Please model this.
Amino acid sequence: MRKNNQWSKRMKTQLLSFTLLLASFLLIIGSYSWFSNNRKTDGKENQIITEEESDAILGDYTIFMRSTSDGNKTYKVLNSLENVTLSTYDSVFGRNADTAVILRIPVSGTCVDDKQALRFTLSRANTDELSEYCSDEYGLKAKETNTDLHIEENKIINYLTNIAVFKFAIIPSLKDYKSTRENAQKIYEEAEVVFDAIGGQYTFAEQTKSGKIYTVTKTTNEITWSLDAGYELTEDEILYVYVEIDYEKHLTAAYLQNHERNFKVGKLGQTQLLSFVGDLSMLQVTPVSTQ
Model:
């Protein structure tokens, strides 16, 4: 009884390196249409797969973002990540308050009505653009060099899942708030507090550090988050799941270190644009059997 949303693998990110204080980096990441939310029933697009009577259904997500300009905070509500640019990531001074994007995903169905335990699985897959250059099935290392794609043999390949971190949460205090522009600040800020307090975070890659040297490994194409039974629903019998996507600072540092000899750095303010390919492929929700 697995229900899923296909998520486009074409989301791209852009990483801008900025030299400051002996080649520290300021990073910017942009995204393009990577949560396409294509769903099917009877071969038709934009509908739901159902093997049984709507046991678990992922609905249309909403995206919440924040930016700061001249000390003023602005909140956005979007229904697609197409042409979204995340706020700047500053690895020098740590000014990263606005880098996270927060998704609010409605889940419904008979299993949700019964408040059954659920399992959410986020999967990645090698894309057509970079798969031929990967030396492993997990999209970590490049097997050959292609300067047009900014990849070099045996270096970390430019996939989103090599630098990103994901968190999942249920936030009962927000369950009856509509996903409107008027509620954007409330939803973003309250979700931010919850995510900041969460101990569990998920990455597709893992890093270790010995002295100043990072080592990155990758042994999975999916991450899984489990939700216990008995959660709260809205008045309309909807469960809202929140997902935060952000930079993982150590993985980002590891990527930059791995590629540092490729960067033409040395002057304050010098920039170099790096492109990343979105390799997320699917979000699935599966009712957990009680037997």
Q: What stands out?
A: The two ends are 14 Å apart (CA to CA). The chain has a mean pLDDT of 78. The chain has three helices and 18 strands.
